[in-house]
Amino acid sequence: MRNKRILFLAALALACSSPRSAIGQEKNNYRAPKVDVSPVIDGIGDEKSWTNAEWSYINQPYDGQDLPDSTDFNGRYKVTWSESRLYVLMEITDDKLVDDRVNPTTNYWDDDCTEFFIDEDNIAEGHECGDNSYNAFAYHIAAVPRDKNNYENGDVMGFDSPDGINHIIDLGTDCNTNNAMNFDDHVNVKITQNGNKYTWELEFKIFDKNYDENSIENTPASLTVDKVIGFAIAYCDDDEGQRDNMIGNVPDHYDYGGPYPFYRFSNEFETVTLVNSTTSSSSISNPKNSSLQNFVWPNPANNTLNIILNTNEDSSGYVKIFNLEGQLLLEKKIGHKKQNIDISNLLPGTYIVDLYCAGINYKHKFIKN
Predict the structure, then answer these.
(1) Cβ neighbours of 71 (radius 10 Å)
(2) What predicted TM-score, i.e. pTM, was given to this entire model?
(3) How far is CA 366 from CA 22, 326, 351, in A?
(4) Which of 41, 58, 88, 118 is 20 to 30 A (C-alpha) from 30?
(5) What is the pLDDT of residues 309-355, one digit of tens each?
């Protein structure tokens, strides 16, 4: 019915003009369901163990640059767990894979790679290198496999080659990037390719801040229900020989110059909560303890999305609409008055509406008839 509408009411007690603090900010939380049977890490992701986990999206600029066109890059991911491992399934569309650096520690952030930030105890603190290097891990995982029999000068291998390995690099106690550590034994990763779409399947051992890089006896942390892990993803996209874009899952993540940049301090990580089961809103939920109230009705809808913001006169924010592939389809700045968002040009299907204001990010699914 063409006259159906969604009334989306967001009452914000905080003014949108108020700054977000560097530490203690509200975070989006992904609720990861426990698996009965661990997935086979083969880059296919067709196991039943993935069915209860919901997709979330890699669609935020980490470097202050404009997001690339969706044909250049788009990505999404889901997370599950067992008592001993964290599992991630990720789909990446990348029109051009580049891996020109033969030694895996040479400017490893400039080649196509995915960076996983994992903080076992979810405490905001420094983590880049030196004495605090293992407060969190920042695994740079190469998008292109190399010959595992020649670490420093391995040839590029096919995704299905038994001799191929996607090297995993991060800084350790030595802050010299030429001496970056190899963590191939921390993550089991397999990638398959279908055209310009790459399916990543990953199995992580989770280590705490007591990790000793000089020992071979480090024991992964045991994972339990209700455990909260600091977590963020970034994809480094290299089309021309150096990183062109850094796209991730956390809004407003590109604080490079302040006292707490994300690559040195874990304050801007989001979280993964380990649960026994999941719900339909597990990965796109309203932040806890915020004054944001949201309502969606009726659902499905057809033509118009109505936004009401109860904020200060000088408030501002945005509304974005994404499809389930993480592609941005519509964006509009919003203020203190009611906004009418025309969705009549959207094709029938399921979408995500993303509202951002006062450092609070709220996402919700809706259906367009």
Answers:
(1) 11
(2) 0.71
(3) 32, 14, 5
(4) 41
(5) 544 444 567 888 888 777 889 888 876 556 778 888 998 888 888 77
Cβ(354)–Cβ(320) under 8 Å? yes
**Residue 320, strand partner residues:** 331, 354
Q: Is 82 helix (H, G, I), strand (E, B) or coil?
A: coil
pLDDT confidence of residue 309: 55
CA atoms within 13 A on the CB side of 153: 0
Q: How many of the other CB atoms lie within 10 Å of CB of 83?
A: 11
- Domains of the chain in sequence order: 5-18+284-368 (2.60.40), 29-275 (2.60.40.1190)
pLDDT in tens, 263-312: 888 887 889 999 997 543 434 444 433 333 334 444 567 788 776 554 44
Is the pLDDT higher at 42 or at 266? 42
Pairing of strands 113-119, 137-142: antiparallel
**Tokens in use for 165?**
């390995």
Residue ranges with strand state E in 83-227: 86-94, 113-119, 137-142, 146-147, 164-165, 168-170, 181-182, 187-194, 197-204
How many beta carbons lie within 10 A of that of residue 68, not counting itself? Answer: 17
Contacts of 186 (CB under 8 A, 6+ apart): 137, 139, 168, 204, 205, 207
Q: Could you please report the per-residue DSSP string of 6-56?
A: EEEEEE-SS-TTSPPPSSS----EEEEEBPSSPPP-SS---SGGGTTSPPE
CA distances from 149 to 8, 104, 146, 186 (A): 56, 13, 9, 18
**Assigned token pair, 264:** 């040195």
Whole-angstrom CA distances from 289 to 26, 144, 221, 292 are: 8, 42, 29, 9
